Each structure stands twice: as C-alpha cells, then as structure tokens.
Amino acid sequence: MELSGRTALVTGAGKGIGRAVAQALAREGVNIGLVARTASDLERVADEVRAANPQVRVAIAAADVGDRAAIEGAIARVTAQLGDVDILVNNAGIAQFGSVLDMEPELWERMYRVNVLGTLYATRALLPSMIARRRGDVINVASTAGEKASATTGAYSASKAALLRLTEALAADVRKHDIRVTALMPSTVNTELASSVGLKIGPAERMLQPEDVAVLVLDLLRLPARVFVRDVALLTTNPV
Description:
Elements: E1 7-11, H1 16-27, E2 31-36, H2 39-52, E3 58-62, H3 68-82, E4 87-90, H4 105-133, E5 136-141, H5 154-174, E6 179-186, H6 192-196, H7 210-222, E7 231-234
Parallel strand pairs: 1-2, 1-4, 2-3, 4-5, 5-6, 6-7
Helix pairs in contact: 1-2, 1-7, 3-4, 4-5
C-alpha cells in the first residue's frame, strides 16, 4: 500500500523505537504526530523528521499516555494540526524489574497504566475516525516478555501479556471495519530504556536495533489491505 500522504501518530516518540519509527515513516512521506512525556525530546525528533523529509507535516504534543485526559488532549492537538490519523503506533512503555514480593504494588499499577491503559486510551481516541473512514492501522509494540516471564519480570511480563490480549480483542472487534490491529513482539532492543534497567544480551551490535523494528512497521503497513497480521515476534540471531 502507498504510504506517502498518510498521517501517523507515534507514542513514546522521543527516543528509541518510537524515534526510529517516526524517522522511517517520514522518509516514506507520512505526516507525523509525535507524542511523548518530554517536550525537548519531541522537539529534537521533530527536527530529525523534518530533516529526513522536509515535505512532511509534523506536530508534537507532550503527554503521559497513562493519564487519560492528557493523552486525549494531546491527540486532539495533533489531529487539529494534521487531520485524521491513518496509522497509530502505540509504542510508549516503561519497564522495571524485581521479584513479585519485592516490587511495590504502586509500580505494578504504574506499569499497567502506561503499557496497557495508555494503549487503550490512545486507540479509543482514534478508532471512531478510522471506523467512519473504514481505514486504519494500529500497531502495538509489545514484547516477547509477554509470552514468557522470569523471576524478575513479573510486572513487566504481565503488562505485556495483557497488551497482547488487548490487541487480540481489538483486532477481532474492528476487522469488520477494514482496520488492522497488530502486536509487534521484539526481544531486547538496544535502547536507552533497556540500558536504564540493565538489559543487555551479548554485544550491543548483535542486539536488535530500533531501526530493525521500524523496518517491520513499514513492511506491515505496505501489505495489501486484504492481509492482516495478528502478531509477529522479532528475535536476534545472537545466540547468547
């Protein structure tokens, strides 16, 4: 499918995967709405997006996706500037690790609020327009941790598992409106988030890179409208 001229909104766009996805979409001629918590990060990425393709329109809105009023307001500001959104990439997420007993319930609640409810809030805000136009792609960045947990990933894995089931339910609900909802499940990606929580699998150059995820996002969006991918896992060839 032709991407040029379409409009996307990317959450968690200030760094890592969101930043790489925004840059990749811009190079394809997609207008971009950027949402993240830190305005300075958004301004930097907006400059990078414009440099990647001066022809695209860019809008930024700082918001915490875990705050329903904040993310709905941010989406309203973006759509006021760019118009209807055709592509939503729910990438915003947080991670923290610890045993089930050691991690405070407040941290579990925060992770669910961002990783699960943040996706729900953003998607609900944009779905009515997509349904009315019978057009839209929603891509939720989950994790392979949603399929398998360890002793220290209980909260994170549980939130990503919930995101996978939310994605599955949304996909079943809106396919009749010609809207695709897909879950991307990368293993550990070489991002600032991964570094901040001490995640590393082998040498950095052998880890998945944000640009690898962005390539798959473009591939999914280019599929014929009749093709729907429910979920896809991205694994590194690194044997470590």
